[in-house]
Amino acid sequence: MEAFLNPTTALIGAALVSLPIIIHLINRIRFRRVRWAAMEFLLKAQKKMRRKKILEQLILLLLRMLLVALAGVLFARFIGCGDGSGKETRPTTHVVVLDDTPSMADVGKREDGAPTTAFAEAKRLIYEKLAPAVGEATTPQTMLIVRQSDPDQQFPARTKLADGKEVPRSAEEVRDEARVVGRTVANVEEYLKPLQLSPARKPLAGALLRAKALFEAAPATDARVIHVVSDVRAADWAADGPAIQNLLADLKENNVTVHFIDVCTPARKPDRKSPPFNDNVGIVEVRPRNRVVTVNQKTELDVRVKNFGTTSVRDLGISFYLNGQGNVITSANVPDLPANQERTITVEVRFPEITNPDERQKLGPLARFRLLTVALSNPEPGGLQADNARHVAIEVRDALKVLVVDGRTVEGGVDLRTTARGDSGFVRSLLNTPKGIDELGKIQIVNGEAAQLATTDLRPYSVVYLMNVPALGEAAVKNLEAFVAGGGGVAAFLGPNVKSTDYNQLMHRGGTGFFPVPLANEFSKELTAEQKLTRTLAFNPRLMLRDPANRAHPALAGIYTDNRGREAKDVERFFLIPNIDHYWPVPRRGAWRDDRSVQELYCLQNDAPIGAFEGRATDLVGEIKKRYTEAKFEKARKFLDPMLESVRRTPAETKPLSELARLLDDLLCDQVSLGDEREPVLRDFWQQPELADLRAKAAELRDATKYGDPLYVVKQFGRGRVAVMTTDAGGQHGDKIWTDWPSLGGAGWSVVVAEMHKYLAGGGDDVNRSVGDKYAAEFDFAKYTPEVALTLLTADASKPNAERRLTWEARPLGKIAMDKATKAADAKPDDPEPPYKLSFDKAGVPGAYVFALTRRKGAGPAAGGPDALGDTEFVSVPFNTDSLIEGDLRRANTDDVAALTNKAPLHNTEDLKWIDDLKQKPTDLSSRRWLYLLLLLVLIAEQAWAVRISYHTKPEDLEALAPSAAAVFAHGTAPRPAEAEEAAPATAG
Amino acid sequence: MARSDGEDPRRFLDPKVIARISQLDLRARQIVEGFLAGMHKSPVYGQSVEFVQHREYMPGDDLRRIDWKVWQRSDKFVIKQYEAETNLRSYVVVDASESMLYGVEKHKRAGSLHKYDYVATAAACLAYLTVKQQDSCGLLTFDSDVREAIPPRSSQRHMDAVTKALQVSKPRAKTDILKIMRQVAESMPGRGLVLIFSDLLCDREPLFKGLEMLRHRRHDVMVFHILDDDELLFPFSGMTKFEGMEELPDLLCDPRALRDGYLEELELYLTEVRRGCTRMGVDYTLLRTSDYMDAVLSKFLYQRMATRANPARR
Predict the structure, then answer these.
(1) Rounded Cα distance, A733 and A948, in Å
(2) A718, exposed or middle or buried, with CB in 10 Å at 0-12, 13-18, 19+?
(3) Residue B185 is part of a domain; what is its CATH number?
(4) Which residues of A touch B266 (CB under 8 A)?
(5) Distance separating alpha carbons of residues A334 and A848, to the nearest angstrom
(6) Which secondary-structure segment (H or E) carries A475?
(7) Beta bridge partners of A168
């Protein structure tokens, strides 16, 4: 009876179905009697027509029963049978997941042409269609709304205000309010209408997880339906597809019905699997080279813009606002940005001093931070606005402190730190030159000592230089590691005083320490005079790029890029001059090679004797000759033969190894440009898949002959960076120097070291955080109090005024408390307390969030004079719109979504028939036209059949069936049978 | 047999019908034999005025019949033959079986005649006509057996006996037509006219055998096949139990469902009867109870009279 809305009528209908049978039976009982003479014909007729008549009567009976049954189905309002899937009659819990991520601001048009956004359509759909439809259902319905950006905030709210305080509500109370009645629908509208888009991108999986929890809290007898009202972007599904798929499978297992509603316009059509979408251009990343600079220091800013659209964009202007003020930094321009491409432009920026005393006073200690807002000057029409601007905060100090720790401080009563003979003489000179100040900022060099490194508060320093430092104590290493991990930079120049064993054991620690490479036990031996002569005559670069791709490395990019941002040519010509006589060899092979955080930027040339490679060279030549016999290599053979001959012959000659390396380079053609006709042929030759192994072998031999020991190695450690020069910085050791590179002036040492300094000073939090992401950091328990003051620096980039000034603000967000971790159970009483954990994921507005940590008394710098940073330490963390994902407005392919959602229905805003199912009412067959049509057809069939088989008194009928009888009535003569006519004369007379 | 008191036997002599047919003759279609000189042709050549033909004299012929005028002209002895005329001896055979009583109540309510009354009236009228034209007429009513048998007479008083016999012959029991035909055939010494009034609701084989027997005896046989309108139209509707007369089984059915089959069977039956009669040279007339009897009899008598002028029918 659950299959009928009117079960009583259904029962009556079922009873009435038997009515034709009953009437038939009554007719059989209530008969009249006729005494009949012509029984013979009747009996014969009955015998002859019995089966036919029974069948006819049966059909008529069935038609009449069907007629009654259909009428019964109509009036009893049949809603279907089976398990009721699709026609839910149980109480139902609905959870609506509302996508309020930035991409929902995508602009479209309604059917009436009015402009709208996906978010507005989503809200309208919920309060105009979904909630009223649910409200019309015949069974109790509960509806909860979960926002994707913040799944914990739901409608109805889980808390309430009592006596001015927010207190949690009971689950029953929440469910009562969620029960859908007329009032609830109004409440839903009231809740949704003022709702604004969140700038935070949160994955759908989080909201689904929350929905799952809500369903688990719902009564077990309830049917469960989840409505995901979203813009269904391809980027969302690409990022979170597997997680969503797993959760949907989980929900399905819990008998949750899932509906996806794509609210984007134009509506998703069944015949177009990939719906059209709006073009959009966004700034996806702003990365300053330095997060801490000095006033007016020249630094650079990388701005990455991406065109997510399908048409290229020309003359894309980029404006910069410093604390909301435009025209301080020159605007940039991207002349052409092709479709689905991104460009990174580098702009030079300087941060002047704040001259306005009011502003300085207003900002207080935060005046050291400059909020840099980067915005598109001519944003694309349509598309998203949220990704057109990005913020970053730069700390501007009066001077940057650099700690220089010399291995040798005083020698022979002379303070070596003040002379060029010292281990850091050239470095100090470099950092204090006017050019150095311009490039590197005003630098305050602080002399440090290795013995005090353990207790020195390193936070005020941007870079720590270890100049020929023999060894560091365990505590010092730990302090340094913490410094680097927190974003600091360490440069190490290795001289003769270095104790490699200590370095390896404490600082490298098999790759886990901050020191990037293990060192050999002894530094390199001095070359003989003959070797030095050979080296000089060879006129080869004394150091070289280990990998051509290193030109783009942040520590070298400045060297290989000219003032216009183009690649600088012939930089390595400077490297022909310097002599590096001693260095600390590094094992060529080892685990450090596989460490992705370690990169060998420069290496020395290989000084090994060329004869050692004769065998390998001959083998290689033999193997190539064996493999190049195919006809298709005929052209390549023409060029290969003389080259291979040179490779085979050269090791036997007394030539420097670099000659063999050059020949192999020419042969492989992958690092040099020959610029002649051989080049395309050889490259084509080596690109043959069947020669891949041979090519690897040749490249290996080339690398072995070409590259010597590492000279310049960098490592990313935590948020900081470490750079190691395996030779020293030009100090004089007795009457010897390890290298004349720093002293040669024009040989590029100062350029390399200046870039190294910028690279090391540019460490810090590099994460391109999005609003809603989590920031987590640890702070020393002994040094800070747990309370952290939070301030938001932000500006509204959408509305620059006539003076190109944005509305910007420093909004205090109150205080948050850091979590204190408990000591481990097996910790000793005198073990240090575990650090505080700062965790923040409540960033709701794009901007720079400045955390102000207060130092405990007595936790200031132990040495080095007054602390320029005062008692408060600041950490700025920028949070911006997740442009990379939210800016990509491509809509997910319908088939892809179907595959990921296990074919969950994906609706659009135009075809909302499915919502009628939620009403539960009109699902009975009386709303279907075909039932009426069927009823009519059966009625016509019944009547036609009844007429066909019933008695009718048409004269022609009698004429047809019994002409003899008809003739009597017509007073005519019955037709004479032919044979009778023939027989009559014969018998007559 | 129960006599139905209070009903005048002479009611079968419908004045309207009598008046209509009294101007007509009931003519035998073929030569009859009678013991009186009448209006019908005799198979015997005798003293009469109606010359038929000449025949060559044969030894033994009566010399008085020689046509001397022919001898005078041709010197040949030929004999003149004259057609003798005799009266008609007819038998009216009326079926008084139970089936003839169909629809008694209905007809009584409607004031119309049921089958038996109809044929009794027709039989009485034809008997009257026969007697009136000096022919002798006998009556035989039957069901499974002969119920009433009145030998042929030609006196006027004889009509009373005929009508009384019709009156008393209330239909009952089953028709046994072969037996009756045999009896009729045996009881008629010469050729005569046999008028059979029946609904013929019996087996066709004995019917045809009986008719064959009569025809074999050179009787002129006329069959008046009477059927009720209901039997011809089968107009019933609603569930009906048909109770078989003459010991036939009952049948409960929806008559509308069987009407087509009934009419088809009826047609087969009527065709078979008509064919059988035609084949044997029996005059067959199908009557229905709603037919105007005077019109029907008049038509029939006209047809009979017309046959006399048509030698081909002899």
Answers:
(1) 127
(2) middle
(3) 3.40.50.410
(4) 38, 41, 962, 964-965
(5) 26
(6) helix A474-485
(7) A159
Q: What's the ipTM? A: 0.79
Residue B296 has pLDDT above 50, yes or no: yes
d(CA A677, CA A495): 47
The per-residue DSSP string of A905-947 comes to: -EE-SS--HHHHHHH-STTSGGG-HHHHHHHHHHHHHHHHHHH
Tell whether B106 is within 8 A of chain A (Cβ).
no
Q: Which residue of B has its CA nearest to A26?
A: B239
Question: Is residue A719 within 8 Å of residue A599, measured between CB atoms?
Answer: no
Q: Distance (Å) from the C-alpha of residue B75 to the closest C-alpha of chain A?
A: 36
Specify the pLDDT at position A866. 43
Element (H, E) at A49: helix A39-76
Strands B89-95 and B136-142: parallel
Task: For residue B18, give Cα distances in angstroms to B14, B126, B132.
Answer: 6, 9, 11
B275 contacts A961? CB cut-off 8 A? no
User: Do B49 and B100 fall into the same domain?
Assistant: no
Q: Which of B263, B269, B275 sits opposite A961 (nearest CB)?
A: B263
- Residue B227 above 70 pLDDT? yes
DSSP string, B55-84: EE--TTS-GGGB-HHHHHHHS--EEEEEEE
Beta bridge partners of A852: A789, A874
Which pairing describes strands A256-262 and A342-349: parallel, antiparallel, or unpaired?
unpaired
How close A87 gets to chain B, by Cα (Å)?
A: 46
- Residue A497 neighbours by CB under 8 Å, 6+ apart: A407, A408, A423, A468, A469, A470
**Smallest CA–CA distance from B202 into chain A, residue:** A40
Phi-psi domain of A65 (left: phi exceeds 0; alpha: psi -120 through 50; beta: other): alpha
Both tokens of B46, joined, read: 């005798």
Pairwise CB contact (< 8 Å): B261 & A46: yes
- The first and second tokens of residue A303, run together, are 């701005």
Neighbours of A201 (CB within 10 A): 24
Whether residues B62 and B209 share a domain: the answer is no
Q: Where does chain B have alpha helices with state H?
A: 15-21, 68-74, 104-110, 115-132, 158-168, 177-187, 204-216, 229-233, 255-280, 293-308
Residues in chain B within 8 Å Cβ distance of A41? 262, 265-266, 269
Neighbours of A937 (CB within 10 A): 12
Residues of chain A where predicted confidence (pLDDT) is lower than 70: 1-2, 79-89, 435-437, 672, 674, 745-747, 765-766, 858-870, 920-925, 927, 950-956, 971-989
Write out the E strands in A595-642.
598-605
| Spatial separation of the C-alpha atoms in residues B95 and A760, rounded to whole Å | 140
| CATH for the A92-270+889-923 domain, from 3.90.870.10, 3.40.50.300, 3.40.1190.20, 3.40.50.410 | 3.40.50.410
Residues B54 and B93 occupy one common structural domain? no
Are B169 and B123 in contact, with CB atoms under 8 Å apart? no
Nearest Cα neighbor of A91 from A138, A124, A37, A41 is: A138
Chain A with chain B: Cβ pairs closer than 8 A = 173
Residues B115 and B47 in one domain: no
Task: Enter the CATH code of domain A400-607+708-761.
Answer: 3.40.50.880
Helix extents (H) in A254-302: none
Do residues B189 and B231 share a domain? yes
**Neighbouring residues of A197: CB distance < 8 A, sequence distance ≥ 6:** A100, A101, A102, A104, A105, A119, A386
- For position A123, what pLDDT does the model report? 92
The CB density around residue A13, as the number of other CB atoms within 10 Å, is 21
Q: Do A49 and B215 touch (CB under 8 A)?
A: no
Pick from A294, A277, A12: nearest CA to A118: A277
Q: What does residue B225 show for φ and ψ, rounded to 5 degrees? A: -95, 110
Identity of the residue numbered B105: E
